[in-house]
Structure formats: C-alpha cells, structure tokens
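Researcher: Go.
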Amino acid sequence: MQNIGEYVVQHRDRFIKELVELLKIPSVSADPAFSQDVMDTAQAVARSLERAGCTAVEICETQGYPIVYGERKVSADLPTVLVYGHYDVQPPDPMDLWDSPPFEPVIKATELHPEGAIFARGACDDKGQFYMHVKALEFMVKTDQLPCNVKFMIEGEEEVGSRSLAAFVEENQEKLSNDIILISDTGMIAKEVPSITTGLRGLSYVEVEVTGPNRDLHSGLYGGAVANPINILAKMIASLHDENNHITIPGFYDNVIELSQEERAEMAKAPFELEAYKDELDIEAVYGEKGYTTNERNSIRPTLDVNGIWGGYIGEGAKTVIASKAYAKISMRLVPNQDWEEITTLFSTHFKNIAPEGVKVKVTPHHGGQGYVTPIDYVGYRAAAKAYETTFGKTPIPQRTGGSIPIISLFEKELGSKTILMGFGLDTDAIHSPNEHFGVWNYLKGIETIPYFYSNFTEMSKQ
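Model: Structure:
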C-alpha cells in the first residue's frame, strides 16, 4: 500500500479543519429546537462523501431524521464493506460545566494529548470517528488503492435510539447488502494500547412517573398525612438494589451467562490501574456489584442506573410544597442473552408491584436493544487486528465494553453480516459529558489504520 502515513502528514491540517467545521453544527437529535441543524449536518455529511470519492450519494428520508447513504463500487467479484456511523450528538447540557462553548471547537494540549485534542460536542461520539472513515476512503480513492467495494450509512438518530433505522434497514436490504459492517463508535484501552471491542451490552431505557394527590399541596397542612411522590419514588428506586448492589427485580438475572474463570483471567490481562482510575474521576472508592472487579462490573455484568430524577420545586429559595408528581429516567445495561424487551416488561411489572397505596405508577419505555459479541476467530477480527499491528506495532487486545450500540444485533438479523468495532476514542474523552474531546493523534491514527483493514479483509476473504 502506498504510504498512508505520508498522506496523513501531508493533509493533516485540512483533515482537522474539515472535522472542526462539521463539529460547529449543533446536530442535537433529542431537542426539536435543533432540527434544522440536524438536517444541515446531513447535507454536510453527504457533501463530504462526494468529495471523498463516493460515486453515488443519497440523503434518504425516514420518519425522523434522514440517513446519508454513499457507495463506491469496484467490482462485483470483490467483498463489500458497509461503514456505519451517526452524525447526531448528545445535548450539551449542563452548559456551565464546559470550559469552552460546545459548538465552537477548540484545540488544546492536555497531559494525555500534548499534540492537542479537539474539544466540542460530538468530537469523539461520533463525528470524529465516522469522519476517519471518510478520509480513509479519500486516501484509497485518490491513490487508486481501494481494494473492495465500500458503502456508507450515516444516520441522525443514534442518540435517541435509532428510531427510524430498523424500518430503513428492512426496506433496503439489497442496497445495504455487504460482507462485513465496520463501525468506529467505541474506544481503545489506552492511547498506546490498541484494542478491538468484541462485546457490547444491550440497553433498556424507561421513564417512570409517580403520582400522588391531584395537585401540589401545602407541606404544612398536608405533610405526614398524604403520600409524597418524591419520597415514595426515592424509596422505590433505593429498593432496586440490595446490600451487595445486586438488582432485585425478579427474573432479571435468569438469562445472564457467567463467564468462566479462564475468560475472566484473560480479561484481567488488560492494563488497568485502579488508583489512576479513581484519581481521574476524583473519587475515593469504586462502587458496584459484590464479587466482581471494576472492569467486570462495567462490561460483563448488567446494571441499573438512574439517569435523571425530578419533581416539586427546584427554583431559587424555598417553597413548602408536596408535589403531585415525581419522575425518573432509568437505564439498564444488559449483557448478551438478556432480551431488552423482556427486561423492560420485568422492570415495569416489578416497579408497579412495589408501589405503596396512595400513589399511582406509570412506566414508559423509551428505547432499547440487544447486546452483541464478535468471535475473535472471525476473518473480520483478524483483518482488524493485523491493521492495528501494522500502524501501532502491537497486537490489539480484545475487550468487552459497557456501552451499547443496539442496532448491531439488528444488522446481523436483517443483513446477515457480522460487525467489527474499530474504535479510536479513550475513556477520558468525556463523551456524553461536558468538555467532550478527541485527541488529534487518535483521529489521525484512525485514518492511517482503517485502509489496512480494507486490504487485509479483501486478501483474507480470498483464502
């Protein structure tokens, strides 16, 4: 392969500038106030695919935000790689915790990234990571080294559960047909320690509502005589874990597969410094299910967390009121074999059953998806591993991670193909948080590594 490293050095400033321009568009899919910005981002992504060398680019309408599709075909006799990514981003809140405006990207040197990191919402998740693939295609087309067919499917609703994606995939199976799906929406163990994500957790996300009296009440006149929905909700949530931080929902663990001691020992080989982990988070101790390590708790074990809770008066000063309603948003990360719809039903039934008299409970499911595992003897994994070995000089470590990409199981079901997760982000990139960033080194290293995957996969597929 003609030297991709030289090409990256030559075009470094342009690659960074193009990503910065993309990050300026506030494509927040969760907030209708940004709907035009999301649409504008789809247009920008389409233009970038055309410039990179896609010979057919479409902005495909859906029931929600559009999916940007692009392709470059070489030969029907060669394999086809489908690249998936998303151009929508998380809401930037809370705004006051950002060191710089979330949609005014800045490049700053950090201790981990002395060469600079791009600070902006979406820098790592997922604009920076999917854009690596766009630039990798550019290199392969401009140097006439594209070894196979490539397709892109970049959506605008991943951060709100990919609501329109299932229908699009079902209706466009021929358009999306492929031999392997390639995604960069995950991370590496460390900057100098490449890894390939082989397992993802599933997800069940619900919202709960507890209603007491038919209106807000004076806490002096009614306190102690009427159920307070906020108090009740707090008690109900607290009861969802026992003293060992084991989830108490009946049937929740029925399909959880316990990893063998041998598998757990292999996981433990990944570099991890507990004290550094605590220091980075500014915590005195880790917390979680008894009997498991930190890296096991956040990858191979299911969890239940409250993502938001509110009710009553939260303004300045005091207001003595018993609220009529209290709310919470709850996510459950699931391991392979746990069906997210079944878990949602189990949660809903249990949460209603533990409600005391005097309140009414409503559970509203939002979205979810299944977990996923990629076997390490699969040709796609071997092609990716060889690509990392070429650019990092090290064999990547297979790892399971705690995040969720629910559509991967959908892809395998509908398209019949496996997915390879080549992520270049780091745990410290603060995705979904204020001051999200993506190291310039990581961004450029991804562009350098991805073309080797294409050549390796094409060659290994002939064997």
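Model: The longest helix spans residues 440-461.
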